[in-house]
Design the sequence.
């Protein structure tokens, strides 16, 4: 199991975190089974806590990873991992929807670990948690868009229906709206 070591999640705050990525054993087995010759270059489209990137870098001393994430906190975790693997991790502050902006091609494999990360759920100020009191923000990238609380205050009924019924796939959407 990959060890993710210490990282700075916020400037000036050192936090030790442990992240076990989903399906990492299966990912590494797939890569081993389909490995080509030469130094593999992987694409991690949802860096998050860096668990998949770490596992890929540890799997082969010649491996390189290009990683993306829209969450600014992921940049800090990526910097810590890049320091452990000098010259082997290239991080881009991008959502995977902008993957076409990358100039490199020919990746050995691409990884997408979709969804909200435990880091986002555990930090109350991110506004995802149901366990801790905090303003509802719920943005994967807090630099863009409206916080959830502001959206709820300003949204029309049609926008709420689209959010709850369509995006949220809530079967009791009428009651929620």
Sequence:
């Amino acid at each position: 199991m990959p060890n993710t070591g210490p990282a700075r999640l916020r400037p000036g705050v050192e936090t030790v975190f442990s992240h076990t990525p989903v399906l990492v054993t299966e990912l590494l087995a797939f890569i081993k089974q389909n490995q080509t010759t030469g130094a593999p270059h992987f694409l991690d489209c949802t860096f998050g806590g860096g668990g998949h990137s770490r596992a890929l870098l540890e799997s082969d001393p010649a491996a390189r990873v290009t990683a993306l994430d829209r969450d600014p906190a992921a940049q800090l975790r990526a910097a810590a991992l890049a320091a452990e693997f000098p010259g082997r991790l290239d991080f881009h502050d991008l959502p995977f929807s902008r993957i076409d902006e990358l100039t490199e091609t020919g990746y050995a494999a691409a990884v997408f670990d979709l969804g909200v990360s435990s880091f986002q759920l555990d930090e109350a100020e991110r506004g995802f948690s149901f366990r801790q009191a905090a303003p509802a923000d719920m943005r994967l990238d807090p630099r863009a868009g409206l916080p959830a609380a502001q959206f709820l205050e300003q949204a029309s009924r049609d926008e709420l229906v689209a959010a709850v019924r369509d995006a949220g796939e809530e079967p009791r959407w009428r009651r929620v709206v």
Residues 57 and 85 are 8 Å apart (CA to CA). The chain has two domains: 6-120, 146-177.
